[in-house]
Known about the structure:
The chain has two helices and four strands, in the order βαβαββ. The protein is an alpha+beta fold.
Amino acid sequence: MWGAKVDSIYETQDIEIHKELNLKGKICPYTFIESMLTLEEMGAGEVLRVIVDYPPAACDVPRSLRNEGYEVLKVEKINGTDWAILVRNTTTEEI
Length: 95
């Protein structure tokens, strides 16, 4: 979902989503590991939307990503079973 605009839930914040990662059906620590690996492939300042359906991941993934230096923009329950985690890649490339 490269360069896609966010859905109506996030439009008021005018956050552009650069990539979406659907991790439904996966549990911790895989949700964190896959999120971090995806962010490492993205450019600085780009935003990743991670979808999880494992309740502990809605808390653990944002906390772990913050600990790694990423900027968690929002965590929101989007329906009866799923959460969306918006995170900005704040890493800089080493020269």
